[in-house]
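Interim report, section 4.2 (structural modelling).
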Amino acid sequence: MGIGRRRLKQYIPLYLMMLPCAIYLIVNNYIPMTGIVAAFKSFKVTEGIWGSPSVGLKNFEYLFSSRDIGIIIRNTLLYNVVFIIVNNAVGIMLAILISDVHNKSLKKLYQSSILLPFTLSMVIISYLVFAFLSQQNGMINNSILIDNPVQWYNDPTWWPVILVFVNCWKGVGYSTLIYMAGISAIDRSLYEAAAIDGAGKTKQIFRITLPLLAPSIITLFLLSISRIFYSDFGLFYLIPQNSGSLYNVTSTIDTYVYRSLMAPGGIGRSAATGLLQAAVGFVLVIVANGVVRKVDASNAMF
Amino acid sequence: MKEKLSYRLLSHTILLLVTLAMILPMVLLFLSSVTDENVLINNGYSFFPAKFSLGAYQYIINYSEMIMRAYQTTILATFLGTTISIAITAMMSFAISNKGLPGRKLITFFIFFTMLFNGGLVPSYIMWTNFKVVDTIWAYVLPFLLTNGFSIILIRSYFEANVPMEMYESAKIDGAGYFRIFWKIALPLGKPILITIGLFTCLAYWNDWLNGMYFINAPRLYSIQVLLNKMSANIQATLTYANYNINASDAVSVPQTSIRMAIAMIAVLPILVVYPFLQKYFAEGIMLGAVKG
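Predicted structure of the assembly:
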């Protein structure tokens, strides 16, 4: 007992050092977790979350009886699937190409420019997109489609393509870098041996590079799967300028949670949607991590 | 050999096109900001403007008060956020990197669980609103961004690998020694990881517009990103509202089409200036997994 207490006493400075961060995590992360009961309440501002009357599963019933839920889940899942495929495919291609560039300064130029959009905020990117697509002043309507301009922000036709493009533009530097790291770990003598045996570039890519990259590809893929129920709020809210006529193809779970929260009387269904997202997300993380562990334990999160 | 040449030709063509695709939108942003307002209204944003003008920038300088204030807010929030974040994150990471610490496993799980589950937007929104952070600088600093499990675990692993265990042992002899070891040994040794994580934190604060959208109503507290976001919705109202000293006839002459691009240009300028020097750290941070893809 005495020894235990003395042992603890030695560590008091360490516990003190933890304190600010621990308090922050309790406030910022744990207290809101208890707030998920809001999903089962009819929220009244004056009563707060705990004082508001319980309504059981009413919020969920309301949510699942509306046609919105189908649209937002469809959009969230489909966009994520396409994002994962496009960003990884383009990333792998660019990583292979950049890794083969011998000129140091060109290599640096390519790498820096691909990573640049990664540093920009979605607000700035929404301005860049607006410069191209604005209906009155946009570059595309005024310089290219002069005779038959498109009402970009009212016409949903092209938005799936635009969003996939913008997402790739912003995010592809990330996957490119990850795959470049994977490629640089591959033993160069494998390629030399293959070249001596007469294997062309295409053959080298398919027989050496891709098989050896497989563990990183699978890991990155699984980690993205675990986030498949989440979407980049800024991408889906700001880039389409929050335009109502595009909601069918731009609404995701995250934009729905925000719009419901801001709508009068929408807090209940917003909280219910948020809880649904967090719960499914939790299961997916656990499952995805379990699979990563099986494939390559060193890449597992836990 | 022939195949090799054609491969290299194809490769450089693709890479050059990609590089252009990455940079041209920035070029269009810049050109639009220095194009004459009437030309913009007639010909739209263009890579080949018929007439240049610094009207938008002149307007910004004349009525710079609003933008300067927004800049100050962004800088203050970024500075406070990054400093506090690094301080509390590094201390936590240092503490849990000590293998002898009683309760270490439990505390690590406590941190880890925040990465697996969250309460969602609604409870957080209601809570921070109740804490009266609304319309204060703390609305930018405190909610969501200050620290996260990912950074804590990354810095902890770095300390575990780089701070020798004997240091902790020697610190045990006199209790206060931990603070000295943290300050004198762990922080200098951890510099690379702290710079990398700090850089991403700094960028996150500089680019953040969500906290502003949730918790800021007062125009005098708009950060540069929030200002741009509000302006995108209604440029006239934002400019008039934020410049309470501007009179109605002046407000009409706002070069609306070019000024939004000019303000966006001013907002990205600091990033463009420091980017070439810090690009190396960005790349390293991504390799470390410092950002959740």
